[in-house]
Hints:
Two copies of one chain form a homodimer. Helices cover about 35% and strands about 15% of the residues of chain A. Chain A contains ten helices and 13 strands. In chain A, a hairpin with a 6-residue loop joins β9 (about 280-285) and β10 (about 290-295). Chains A and B meet through α3, α4, α6 and α7 of A and α3, α4, α6 and α7 of B.
Amino acid sequence: MSSLENNFREIIPYTPGEQPQFKDKVKLNTKENPYPPSPKVMNKMLDYNELKLYPDPTAEELISAIADYHGVSKDMVFAGVGSDDVLATSFMAFFNSGKPILFPDITYAFYDVWANLFKIPFTKCPLNDNFKIEKEDYYRENGGIVFPNPNAPTGILMPLSQLEDILSHNRDVVVIVDEAYIDFGGESAIPLLNKYDNLVIVQTFSKSRSMAGMRIGYAIAGKRLIKELNTVKYSYNSYTLNYPSIKLGKLAIEDDEYFKNTVSKIINTRERVKKELSDLGFSGTESMSNFLFVTHKNIMAKDIFGALKEKHIFVRYFDKPRIDNYLRITIGTDDEMDKLIAFLKEYINK
Amino acid sequence: MSSLENNFREIIPYTPGEQPQFKDKVKLNTKENPYPPSPKVMNKMLDYNELKLYPDPTAEELISAIADYHGVSKDMVFAGVGSDDVLATSFMAFFNSGKPILFPDITYAFYDVWANLFKIPFTKCPLNDNFKIEKEDYYRENGGIVFPNPNAPTGILMPLSQLEDILSHNRDVVVIVDEAYIDFGGESAIPLLNKYDNLVIVQTFSKSRSMAGMRIGYAIAGKRLIKELNTVKYSYNSYTLNYPSIKLGKLAIEDDEYFKNTVSKIINTRERVKKELSDLGFSGTESMSNFLFVTHKNIMAKDIFGALKEKHIFVRYFDKPRIDNYLRITIGTDDEMDKLIAFLKEYINK
């Protein structure tokens, strides 16, 4: 068997957040939406007889709905099995120069995993002491750039003017902006697509659109970049989105009223909880996402994490340099957040 | 833009079969099952409220059902978004030695596409004049082996004794046997897993299990190979199978009676149609799959293909060396096949 292993790819995989199975849990560790999908989705009867046929490889219905929603043409949209699939496909498609790609040292933990998987060299640019991206770090020669906006796990939003500075300094490489959390208070870079043919914007149905269980993500970019993403897709798996994803995804994106309503509930809860956490001695970043990134003035994050877990309240803790005294707390329903706050009040004042 | 393209991956994508949209079509070009999924699937109400949460990344329910069905342990099963995803992941995981991998010259058209995508060198071993795999071609030094059994588009089955000869000559590399069509008359290599730790068997829900629209494929192999496939999966996309795939896939595999019944209907139709085509002057391989691979004694395959297409009867034609006078015809319902035969009778005798 040992010689067999010489054929294996050498990699260190990404560690996803825990998926605890307790019935009474409060699950605030994987940035899911606490509200169900739109009633238009909930009430749809799928025609399972369609399952015998391959799904439309172009996912035309879904792609059209996304294009219409964002006011772009259909050939500017690419869809995949969650934004992870879209991002991984983008890494494969666009980061082949041999030069190191650039991304923040504190960011979505999948970027270096994909770079390793596809043997793409990379350099991590440290966030500054306020956990902000320094745009000048991205002015050096590179093979491409990727960062989330807002960034994770900090939730900090980069203003579009700064983002444009990074784009204009990098016209010869692809810049991927991962907008997984943009709907919770940020401004999308989509209008910059008119000016920058090197920009790829990635969004997801998993957070603001309450459909993590369906696995739908998409990219918006200029036609030539989308064509390239499709070329890689058709070289990997012609039919990635299944029949339910195409049908229900379309319905979800069409119900804009429901979407705006749930997003605004989450924002309200976030601001309320931020205030309450502050009263309990927590401080943190100015999060524009569906999570808070906080540290306590006296108690170690790891200890709070452990105490919460014992009560089946799950938040995310990263045992990593610079952020190992922080917790990332997903915004749940008001009821779920009340349970969290009630426990913390008791725990901190005991 | 031209310098931007220097960063792109150089590839030639796979061309999937046409998905014609005519209402009155007879679609025999993409090897789909003409029968709907099991009534257990058709009658299942999914709880769409679950869609707000990420699906189980381990797809435990589905994996358990597959493991139970095949009488193997859960850690011997890996699942993905169709067998294409499972095969592509296997290429990434197992074909990293730098030596050329081996596969037939006439076979599933995705193998060389994946090899190109992942920059894996490869050598194609020509089928013999009867379109059979010559096992001795696979005794040379190599970086891995992959072939379908039965092979596509020929439908020819390799006896397990020959398959074992290939395995025993290649103990130091991974041998992938793509059993997409095994249920239509072949014998699975699963029992050989006890003896060969270098064997990966790939199966799919898209053909015999009537669920092409759901995109479910799986691999069965020894624990160490499955662990390696999971490592690559968790480095690419933690949550590949969505909530409906996990739930409905489980139900589909559990209904063995329905499965055996539809498979046997397809086999009966195949044998009947083979005889009728023979009466019309067609000959072909001894197909053990859900398609026939036939050539006509007088009329060029390309002409027949075009004539059928005009009548909205879609079969597959490959404009490739050695097989450019053959048609691949999926076995549909008896009614669909009657339409095909009726047209051919008229066309050939005109």
